[in-house]
């Protein structure tokens, strides 16, 4: 099964072509250009280099959030359009689950942690199980100080939130806080493809019409509007 997968959930991003659990090609996009400018050209470049036509793809996958509101909308629009136009299955993968997948055989529970700005983090807690993951604590958005009491055992943290709040985690959790090496802190599009393959094997694709982003919190614009309305009232 040939799957085209993307990640547009953060400043960095990626495009990958996978066949089952095998990586055919992967391109990281840790650059300053916006996803709107680089996503489609990168997809075209990857397919051209692999000599694969769009109609040869079996499915599409993307990170559905949490993460950058703008980036997720761009990725969602692009992949929904391709899946609909080609009548192919589409799978939306949690950004946090894809991030946790960077450490498939970790001996400790894993907490992917994304900086949600406004002094908040997106996080969830995953339990590794035979190379796969079981969600142990639901994905949510909290202040770091509110998240920390949920961690009661040794936990590996990864993601840009672990970089931003690493000192706080070590201070509050001591040896329970294990910060993964930085090379594991970026979502990989190939992992998105691997998780999508599991879903497709189980017969659980998403509906391209009803698939929605998983933001976990209101956007900055919505928060600002609510604050202005509150002040005016």
Structural class of the secondary structure composition? alpha/beta
**Cα Rg:** 18 Å
Give me the strand/helix succession.
EEEHEHEHEEEHEHHEHH
* Oligomeric assembly: single chain
Structure description:
The chain is 36% helix and 29% strand. The model has no long low-confidence stretch (mean pLDDT 92). The longest helix is centred in the N-terminal third of the chain and has 18 residues. It is α/β, with parallel strands linked by helices. The N and C termini lie far apart (56 Å). A hairpin with a 2-residue loop joins strand 7 and strand 8. It is globular and about 50 Å long. Helix 1 crosses helix 2. It has a five-stranded mixed β-sheet with strand order 3-2-1-4-5, with helices on both faces.
Topology of this structure?
Layout: E1 2-7, E2 14-19, E3 22-28, H1 35-50, E4 59-65, H2 69-86, E5 90-94, H3 95-100, E6 109-117, E7 120-129, E8 132-142, H4 144-147, E9 155-158, H5 160-164, H6 166-173, E10 177-179, H7 189-201, H8 220-232
Parallel strand pairs: 1-4, 4-5, 6-9, 9-10
Antiparallel strand pairs: 1-2, 2-3, 6-7, 7-8
């Amino acid at each position: 099964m040939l799957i085209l997968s993307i990640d547009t959930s953060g400043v960095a991003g990626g495009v990958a072509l996978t066949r089952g659990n095998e990586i055919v090609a992967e391109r990281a996009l840790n650059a300053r250009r916006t996803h709107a400018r680089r996503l489609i050209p990168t997809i075209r470049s990857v397919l051209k280099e692999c000599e694969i036509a769009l109609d040869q793809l079996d499915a599409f996958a993307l990170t559905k959030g949490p993460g950058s509101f703008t980036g997720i909308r761009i990725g969602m629009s692009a992949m929904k359009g391709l899946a609909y136009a080609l009548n192919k299955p589409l799978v939306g993968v949690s950004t946090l689950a894809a991030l946790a997948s960077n450490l498939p055989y970790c001996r400790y529970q894993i907490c992917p942690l994304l900086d949600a700005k406004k002094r908040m983090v997106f996080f969830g807690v995953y339990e590794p199980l035979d190379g796969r993951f079981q969600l142990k604590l639901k994905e949510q958005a909290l202040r770091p100080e509110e998240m920390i009491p949920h961690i009661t055992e040794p936990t590996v943290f990864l993601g840009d939130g672990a970089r931003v709040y690493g000192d706080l985690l070590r201070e509050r959790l001591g040896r329970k806080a294990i910060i993964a090496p930085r090379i594991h802190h970026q979502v990989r599009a190939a992992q998105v493809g691997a998780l999508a393959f599991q879903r497709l094997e189980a017969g659980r694709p998403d509906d391209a019409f009803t698939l929605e982003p998983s933001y976990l919190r209101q956007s900055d614009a919505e928060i600002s509007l609510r604050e202005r309305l509150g002040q005016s009232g």
